[in-house]
Amino acid sequence: MTWSAPNDPYYTLPNEWDFADERLALLGAAYDPASIALAKRLGVQAKWRCLEAGAGGGSFARWLCEAVLPDGRVLAVDADPRHLADIPGRGGEIARIDLVADDLPEGEFDFVHTRFVLLHIADRDAVLRRLTRALAPGGVLMLEEGDGLGVLDVMPGPFGEVWRAFARSTEFAGASQSWARNLPAQLKTLGLGDVHAEADIPMFRGGSPMARMWNLTWVQAHDTLAALGVRPEVITAAQAELADEHRWHYAPPTVRAWARRIDLL
After folding, report:
1. What is the DSSP string of 215-242?
2. How does DSSP assign 149-218, residue by residue?
3. Could you tell me the end-to-end alpha-carbon distance of the chain, in angstroms, rounded to an integer?
4. Of 88, 133, 260, 261, whose CB count within 10 A is highest?
5. Domain count along the chain
6. How far apart are CA 64 and CA 60, in angstroms?
7. How far apart, in whole angstroms, are the C-alpha atoms of residue 147 and residue 123?
8. What does the alpha-carbon distance between residue 11 and residue 146 come to, in Å, rounded to a whole number?
9. Is residue 62 part of a domain?
10. 157 and 247 Cβ atoms separated by less than 8 Å
11. What CA–CA distance (Å, rounded) separates 263 from 261?
């Protein structure tokens, strides 16, 4: 099936870009191991009904299909589901759903997950309420979001300079690089229980999937970065750093928060 690209005014890194498929695949390769490990800790297993919101490239949704089907359910939704076309063949479902404007099924899922989506959406708090309402009694909500958490000003060299400009560009478009650190309190306010959170700072080598993902991100955001005053030679130097297998870098922290719907248990 061929998907038409929607004009998405809500998300700062739209998926209709020519190299988005490669960038999303690299993002999955970099972050799936930690996401899957936490999902397993939270009990995701056969027969669970799962919602992957803002599924992007679909790598985590594919793992969910392996973990819970055939007797469970996997619904992967995105405003631009062009990268999810293989999910039905794996037994899952896909739907074109704009998380800001469209409704989600309510009270139906044992597990609801999103990764690096909400921070990019200006109406993120409204989307978070929708995700919470999608939980069945006893269901688990697992959120993974990036957050500066004090490291942005100390990221060294050209990579740090470009990243700071990129972070500013996303915030001009409605993103927040500081929202995720408050997720535990927000989940409690929404009436969820058994709230937990953790954060880690990913370390990665040049030439690794995470390095190549950031390199492609600079390509996608090149014109925006230049408009913010980042000199082309600085962008080139940052990309050279990311390609150098002898260099190690660190990415902005990842905040992971999870909670359970405890009413009506």
Report:
1. HHHHHHTHHHHHHTT--HHHHHHHHHHH
2. TT-GGG--HHHHHHHHHHHHHHHHTT--SSSGGGHHHHHHHTT-EEEEEEEE--EEETTSHHHHHHHHHH
3. 41
4. 261
5. 1
6. 6
7. 17
8. 14
9. yes
10. no
11. 6
**DSSP SS3 for 120:** helix
Q: CB-based burial of residue 11 (10 Å sphere; 0-12 exposed, 13-18 middle, 19+ buried)?
A: buried
Tell me the C-alpha to C-alpha distance, in Å, between residue 85 and each of 50, 67, 90, 93, 141.
18, 19, 10, 9, 25
Residue 80, in any domain of the structure: yes
The answer as to whether 155 is a domain residue is no
Say which amino acid occupies 223: D
- What are φ and ψ of residue 205, in 5° steps? -90, 150
* 55 SS3 class: coil
Per-residue pLDDT of the chain (265 residues; tens, 9 = 90+): 222 233 444 445 556 666 788 989 999 999 999 999 999 999 999 999 999 999 999 999 999 999 999 999 999 999 999 999 999 999 999 999 999 999 999 999 999 999 999 999 999 999 999 999 999 999 999 999 999 887 777 788 899 999 989 988 888 889 999 999 999 999 999 999 999 999 999 999 999 999 999 999 988 888 889 999 999 999 999 999 999 999 999 888 999 999 999 974 4
Q: Supply the CATH number for residue 56's domain.
A: 3.40.50.150
Tens of pLDDT, residues 43-72: 999 999 999 999 999 999 999 999 999 999
The domain in which residue 119 lies consists of: 20-149+176-203+253-260
